[in-house]
Amino acid sequence: MAPMVSIRPGPTAARNASRWATFRGSYTHRPPIRALYTQRGIATNCSLNEPSLDYPGPPGGSLPVPIEQRQSLQQRKEAIKNAKPFSEFLTDSFHRQHDYLRISITERCNLRCLYCMPEAEGVPLSPPAHLLTTPEIVYLSSLFVSQGVTKIRLTGGEPTVRRDVIPLMQSIGALRSKGLRELALTTNGISLHRKLDSMVEAGLTGVNLSLDTLDPFQFQIMTRRKGFEAVMKCIDRILEMKKLGAKLKLKVNCVVMRGLNERDIVPFVELGREKDIEVRFIEYMPFGGNKWSEGKMISFHEMLDIIRAKYPGLRGVPSHKNDTSKTFEVPGFVGKVGFITSMTNDFCGTCNRLRITGDGNLKVCLHGNDEVSLRDLLRKDNGGEPIDQEAFDRIKQIEMDRREGILGDETTLGWGERERELLDVIGVAVKKKLEKHADMDDLKSMTNRPMILIGG
Fold first, then answer.
1. pTM of this structure
2. DSSP 408-446
3. Is residue 342 situated within a structural domain?
4. Is 22 in contact with 138 (CB distance < 8 Å)?
5. For the segment 365-422, what is each residue's pLDDT rounded down to a tens digit?
6. Can the peptide bond before residue 157 be classed as cis, meaning omega within 30 degrees of 0?
């Protein structure tokens, strides 16, 4: 059983009431974080970046150090000195620390991609009451951030089709003061363009955009829908915002399938000749209903050979230890090229990712079929019914009344017994995470959800 949250001296009633008001306000009405606007009216998230700390002076100390900088340096030293160990609840038995959470906020999508959606039968969507509500998503986000998660990615389905996606992002973006550093989105880009400015204001720092071909006709074949022009317009918009100061990462994800889009590999690489884009080629992976076969899969090494036939200078570049992709560059090109090699060369040893599905299940491995429900435990105090804003306030008030208006500090967010149970369930699931996912021969015969119901 995972260890319990340590008990610290209880704060005063006023301090606790203030903390609860702050948390509750994080998913009720909150004015959007103000962004900087250029004269062209394009929002950036520059205001979300911490002030840079200038070097205090040359080694000889001839320049005076402003008192504000001295205080800031001292505060950082104190923070490092008092830093707590990473949460045991999010550390698995192989000492991997999971500080990256992916949350599927909808099962619906406006495309029907071949590798994601079964062609004939589609996918059985969960009843609305089975899906996480906004207060539930924000609470779970807050809980994971309190345990050390620094990056949250919203996925789907297609997250932009969720009606309240902007307020939801505002609420999660507000967790930046609690330790969240990145708020990212995985999207097909079809309807992103008109929401992008508001998302950047809410704290969006990265976009992974799914695009499998640069041929409009082939796009319609692979997605079973139109919309190529909208996606390209979205890419141009993001690049324009980046040029104007938006701190927004852009990665284009391309699933490569033999006989469909391998001829797009080189054109995708050339997309980065003058554009600041990282195109990541993904090995075709088996999921429920997508008719995977090894013959359709093009391996990482075969993709490298295709690119090097035209660009022999392609070379690897250093990457972060937790990166899912192997990064390369063509000398002289602005953009980068990445390869996600789940099938032929896994990266399980440095995996730091957890997933919450749209129906509230914690999934510790994309390719594993073990899941545990956080939704059912979260709703235990609400008779198993979805927790909307009113229900959340009522449950919280019961907890406050039980403590005579004073929120104890034995749990991170003051939820009491329910929060301890959630952390225990999360901790046990994380500890059961395997050292690596199954090999390719086993994966193709394993039962797993369709990708659209997992959250990519």
1. 0.79
2. -SSSSSS-THHHHHHHHHHHHHHHT--SSPPPHHHHTTS
3. yes
4. no
5. 877 778 999 999 999 989 999 999 999 888 777 777 766 655 555 556 666 778 889 9
6. yes
Question: How many CA atoms within 13 Å lie on the side-chain side of 432?
Answer: 15
CATH number assigned to the domain comprising residue 327: 3.20.20.70
> What is the 3 state secondary structure string of 214-232?
CCHHHHHHHHCCCCHHHHH
Is 57 among the domain residues? no
If we measure between CA atoms, which residue out of 235, 318, 222, 335 comes closest to residue 276?
335
pLDDT in tens, 76-129: 766 665 666 899 999 999 999 999 999 999 999 888 877 777 665 667 889 999
Total domain count for the chain? Answer: 1
CA atoms 59, 64, 69, 71: torsion sign: positive
User: Rounded distance, CA 347 to CA 72, Å?
Assistant: 38
Closest CA to 159 of 172, 146, 148: 172
Between CA 391 and CA 390, with CA 21 as vertex, the angle to 5 degrees is 15
- The reply to whether 193 falls in a domain is yes
Tokens of 20: 């609860």
